[in-house]
Amino acid sequence: MLNAIVVGAGPAGALLAYLLARRGVPVTLLERQTDFSREFRGEVLMPSGIAALHEAGLRQPLGALPNLSIRTVEIFRGERRIVAIPVDGFETPPRIVPQPAMLEMIVAEATKAKFPGFKLERGVTVRDLIYEKDRVAGVHADTLEGPRDYRADFVIACDGRASAIRKRAALPQDRIMQAFDVVWGRVPGHFLDGRTARGYIGNGRLLIIYPSPEGHMQIGWVIDKGAFGDIKKLGAEGWIGALAPHVSSDLRNFLAANKTGPAHPFLLDVICDRLREWTVPGLLLIGDAAHPMSPVAAQGINVALRDAVVAANHLGRALVMHADEAMLDFAARNIQAERWPEVVTIQDMQQLGPRFVMSNSLLGRIVVSAPMIAFAKLFLAGFLARRFDPFLNGVTRVVMEQ
Length: 402
Ligand SMILES: Cc1cc2nc3c(=O)[nH]c(=O)nc-3n(C[C@H](O)[C@H](O)[C@H](O)COP(=O)(O)OP(=O)(O)OC[C@H]3O[C@@H](n4cnc5c(N)ncnc54)[C@H](O)[C@@H]3O)c2cc1C
Description:
- By secondary structure, this protein is α+β, with helices and mostly antiparallel strands.
- Helix content is about 40%, strand content about 25%.
- A seven-stranded mixed sheet has the order 6-5-15-16-17-14-18, with helices on both faces. The protein has a six-stranded mixed sheet with strand order 8-2-1-12-21-20.
């Protein structure tokens, strides 16, 4: 039986390894962390990502994870609420699911189902590719016991936005320059009813706060690119204090009351790009390794999960059929072809929001003004819902082959 190595057990790698193993492919999943509670990397699952997990047959275990659906999104400008948008009317509402729990669930399901070919090795950092006759034939890695080589018929890199494999394969990329970064932090306790998310806009600023099922409020503070150094110097309490002038008094009071408990703010250095080619002979890159997404509209996890389903369809079939090298590479090219329209559409859409919300220009201020938002709500609701549907449901149909 042909075998595969998947590098990186984030959403893309964990789900892909699970799905390949379910098809009977011997697959080794290599993850540099020893547990999934590594750094915070988002937790908003859109209907598109939830559908991918359902397609993968994980509906029941996903439903059993700690999760929370937001009922209302309120947009404020300082003290004034501009609009309250109900978001509980969706058939599948967006859900907040802690990412470590989701990843543990996926690999536990593979182990529980006793897929004979599934193997997860934690604490393994891939350093380089092994080539044989101009074809990728495995990876060099550092394990907890020392350096080791892993060989496979096909390698799939799911090692995220700082992908070492992307660097080694030296694939050309198109970068979309970003003008902002995001500072993330959390404050213990629940604000409001525990089901409401808020966005504060104005003066070229954006603050997002939403409840987590783990009993805290998650805060995202959008800043000019490169400005994190000054915030870091403030420390956790100082940072919370610096947010106060930008929010309404009820949130200011909540933050003041919980000022001593927040975790240290940390930086998401926002990048958004895509490789022109996701594959070379013997190797495919998917998820953030191929196309790191902007954080706008919380798309990265969802697009990565959808990549995994499509990759499992094409590569799973080829590996199970004992396809020759040319057929394996053809399958990899088909994965990029199938995923490309969605990735490009969503990345392009992600560039629009910050241009207006973060802009302090007159046009930007008009676009996010209360009368404009009220006008859009009354007269453009249907158009906007269609326009933003790709953020919720994706662009293409992603279905798991049986
Ligand atoms: C602060 C933050 C908040 C975010 N919020 C959201 C959100 O709410 N919703 C959303 O959809 N997206 C969000 N994102 C984006 C989302 O996290 C990513 O787009 C998504 O996780 C990509 O999945 P992936 O599997 O491709 O890569 P990753 O999740 O990055 O997984 C890569 C994995 O590879 C491992 N790895 C890396 N290098 C190596 C190596 N050399 N050897 C072995 N293993 C390696 C890493 O440890 C990691 O486990 C957020 C990102 C950040 C940073």
